[in-house]
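This week, look over our next protein:
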Amino acid sequence: MLVVGAGFAGLTAARELSRAGMKVLLVDARNRLGGRTFTSSFLGQKIELGGTWIHWSQPFVWNEVVRYGLGLAESPGAAAETASWLVDGKLRQGGAERPWKIIADAMTAFCDVDRQGGRQVMQMAHDPLFRKDLLIPWDRLSLQDRLDQMKFGRETRDLLSPQLSINCHASLKDGGFADMLRWWALGEHDMGRMFDKLGRYKIKEGMGELARRMLDDSDADLLLSSPVKSVSREGDTYVVVTDKGQTFTTRAVVMATPLNVLANISMPAGWGAGKRSMIERGHVGRGSKCYVHIRQKVGNWIGMAPAPHPISLAWTEKQRDDGTLLVCFGPPNLLDITDEEAVQAALRTLLPKVEVLGVTGYQWAVDPYSQGTWCWYRPGQLTQGLPGLRSAEGGIFMAGSDQAEGWRGFVDGAIESGITAARDVRAYLKG
């Protein structure tokens, strides 16, 4: 049995299958575990360069936190006391309560597509296509399309826009509106609860530690630094070949790789049109994330700016004796996170005269083994593409955060898909 990809979907599938008594080989292109999570350090501070936040209402990842006795830490800026925001290009500053109230009211109206707060269209957050018939018309819209339908004033529009931009991590015209309805349902139709689930709590020991413990709890063999080049079928078996020419024969394969990478792997012919379309188009999440050390002490602060500003949202990650550590997010291709002067210039529109002392981050969009950040679908992909993407093709089973039914785009969704794939593989091999 072979699992391609050692992110949390692959780790979960490998653990479950090996503990069921199967001989499992886990193969990954990178020289480390974790996929689009990456625990690192900056200025002596533990940071997450990729996927970061979890919540106890995310059932699959919370089960792992409890299983391995891990703790939680809080990002201070998620409960900000002060805020800076741009309206029509002009800076406004003050207590965080006022902009958050505007954002909460705006998001409530934005997602109220059925006069029930979206509850009818997205009745079951972990089964997003439960009312596919009602969802299809809304899935045709982009986030920009929906924003254009709303009669918001300029301040409301300029405060809601950054929230939408960070959610899809892309241009609003590329991000599908239906995914916002899904997040809204997962967030219990409340802006405060949704933001707590998206960006407030993280694993104290780090995502890397969770990945390590899951591997240690597995009997799978691990092969790193081995990008898979092709998967082909020969009778009742599958042949997996790496770019180094390593060849493995197996009865079943779990493809636990990011959606945006699948097009680079040669797969057997005859896959369905829905799956092919999803693989060819990919998802839109390709924005930036970086950590910025500034000299000023700004307390528990959050900053917001509408597109095309290079920083959509920024907030306090850590208050330090030598200043403040911020975490910043922006749309694709608008901020060079390797250029401290560019980062400082962008931040100064929100924090005038701020002095940047250092910047670190990871460029996920240009990493050949991710080609993007978290998953957000294009218009039409949720209703038209998700079922096909999730379906098995003979003995090839799809897994990954990008195809989860519940918290897609999150570590929780990755673990969900790994559990699902392992269950389906066991049933397939039992025949």
